[in-house]
Amino acid sequence: MHIAMIGCGYVGLVSGACFADFGHSVTCVDSDPARIDALHGGRVPIYEPGLAELVARNVEAGRLAFTTALAPAVGEADAVFIAVGTPSRRGDGFADISHVFAAAREIASALRGFTVVVTKSTVPVGTSDEVERIIRAANPAADVVVASNPEFLREGAAIGDFKRPDRIVVGTTDERAREVMTEVYRPLFLNTSPLLFASRRAAELIKYAANAFLAMKITFINEIADLCEKVGADVQDVARGIGADNRIGSKFLHAGPGFGGSCFPKDTLALVKTAQDHDAPLRLIEATVAVNDQRKRAMARRIIAAAGGSVRGKAVAVLGLTFKPNTDDVREAPSLAIIRGLLDAGAEVRVHDPEGMDQARALLPEVVFCKSPYEAARGASALAIVTEWDQFRALGLPRLKGLMAQPVLVDLRNIYSARDVIRHGFRYVGVGRGDDDDLPAARLRRVRRPEMPAPVALDGAGRDHGLDRRRA
Description:
It is a single chain. The protein is an alpha/beta fold. The protein is 40% helix and 13% strand. The chain has a six-stranded parallel beta sheet, sandwiched between helices. A six-stranded parallel beta sheet has the order 11-10-9-12-13-14. Helix 8 links the parallel strand 7 (168-171) and strand 8 (195-198). The chain is elongated.
């Protein structure tokens, strides 16, 4: 198959490279000459594990090419995928789909022969209908079908997600389009990946509903974590207990500082706005958006409290800028709101991230960027782990303590054992961890638990055989 991928951003580049790896001939088109020049030079403009090698291999094999010239790529394509950005629109929170419509207008004049035009970008319900209207208005003679094919890629695991998907959703009721899209994804049939056909509008809504549900699941466990802290329970125990129920599942039940990234924040907000426009408000998703926004700033207050109630004139180390590990994406990352809260409180913020510092420099000009976690910790009155990079899971605690002005570790991802951290002389603050066995002594009496009677063994005559009555 000949495929044109319009947009060389995250979705377009990963999808194009993976399609090429399936054996298709793929041309990726982007309007940014600098990005195309970088790709021609072998420089992948985003960080995604394995992507640079995948791109290089398929370019060398002649299956993957990059260009700014849209018309030739579209003219020879069996399928044209629109994979341009749809950020939140300033002012009202709706998805900005102007780039999708601009791509549709340019595609219309370049179509040659039967072509399936596919909206790969995350778009509100009804967008593909408008894409078809635009194309037919611009080129009434075009032999074209517009379909929807939302992506379900996780940053940091995108290549595996594309090649071993849970499902492939295609929105079309046209038989010719079904045949083309089946052929496009035929290499995945060996993995028995389910190809689900639906209407275009259902396909568009599946994407938004999936992301909103996962965002709601994250927000749910974060609120349960807050309750755990009040009643003296451990949210990790609670998460394991409810996650073992296969109706619920264990994924996305990890308490932390809130969700971020390029998808969940904008997609939940866009779904809320779409629902309001159609007079079908989604109250649960509205609450999810509000709670998540408030939580990020609350994490800054947690760090300030751990540092003694004030960070004015003090240094605070923040480890992790990206919204999740194995990416360089800092869009809507919790770290941004947390750092802003610390700066507003008068702290000197020292940060380190394995991949996200270049992306964050323009957003955080006031902070000190450090080459290692230990450089960030030097002289700090508190150290906060915001992103669970593997590099942060085995820090040298004795070394950190020797560098810090005040040994305080705020673990917003619960990646450390509180007992181990406390044993090294730190004050430890996690998220939703109220288990008496893991908290420093100063916090053990926050919750007074009722006395429970000791177990007693009675023989048939009712005599007490005196079981050990020592408290656990």
